[in-house]
Design a protein that fits this description.
mainly beta; Pnp Oxidase, Chain A; two-stranded antiparallel sheet; 5% helix; extended
C-alpha cells in the first residue's frame, strides 16, 4: 500500500489582522477573494578589485526587498466572524476616502495568511506573518450598467517584513492499495 501526500491548495485560506486596538489575542478576520504579490528578492552588488588576476566579477548579496501584497474582496455587509467595519476603519486612517482626507490614525498591523487543510482548519498549516503593514492604495470596483460582474474592491499593502512558518502537518494523506480491485 502506497501513501500519497497531497500538496496544499491555494483556494482555502484565512486572513487575520492584528486588532486595531492593539489586542493581538483577538484578531480581526475578514474574507478575501484573493491575496497576491507576496514576494521577497535579494539585490546583488558586483565587486571586483583592479589587481585581481581573474576577470570575474563577484556577486555580493545586497538589500532584501519585500513586495507589496494586494488583497481583493467582495463588498459585503458585516456578519458574525467577518469584522468588515474594523478593517475598513483601519484602512480609512491611511487612505483618503473622504473629503477630509485620511484621519491621521496611522496604525501598523500584522497580517497573517494561513492555508487551510482538507478539514478546513489551520493547525500545522503553512503560514505567512506579514509584519508592520499599512495600506498604500484602495480601489473601488468598476461599475458598468451592462456587466454582470461582482463588486470587488482591492487594497495594496506595504509590508515591513514577513516570516514563513512551514507546515507541520500534511494537507491530506491518501492510502492507495495496489490490489486488483
Amino acid at each position: 500500500m502506497a501513501n500519497y501526500i497531497d500538496p496544499y491548495v491555494t483556494y482555502r485560506y484565512m486572513v487575520e489582522f492584528s486588532n486595531p486596538q492593539g489586542n493581538k489575542n483577538t484578531p480581526v478576520r475578514t474574507g478575501f477573494q484573493s491575496v497576491s504579490g507576496l514576494s521577497v528578492s535579494v539585490g546583488t552588488m558586483n565587486y571586483r578589485e583592479g589587481d585581481e588576476k581573474l576577470t570575474i566579477v563577484r556577486k555580493i548579496p545586497g538589500l532584501t526587498k519585500v513586495g507589496n501584497v494586494t488583497l481583493k474582496w467582495g463588498l459585503v455587509f458585516e456578519t458574525e466572524g467577518n469584522d468588515a467595519t474594523a478593517f475598513f476603519d483601519w484602512m480609512k486612517g491611511h487612505v483618503s476616502i473622504s473629503s477630509d482626507g485620511p484621519d491621521g490614525n496611522f496604525t501598523l498591523m500584522d497580517v497573517t495568511v494561513r492555508l487551510m487543510n482538507l478539514s478546513g482548519n489551520t493547525d500545522g498549516t503553512p503560514t505567512w506573518v506579514l509584519e508592520r503593514c499599512f495600506p498604500l492604495s484602495f480601489a473601488v470596483p468598476e461599475m458598468k450598467a451592462e456587466s454582470d460582474g461582482l463588486a470587488i474592491s482591492s487594497m495594496e499593502l506595504a509590508i515591513g517584513s514577513f516570516n514563513f512558518i512551514p507546515p507541520t502537518a500534511p494537507y491530506s494523506e491518501v492510502n492507495v492499495s495496489g490490489g486488483n480491485g
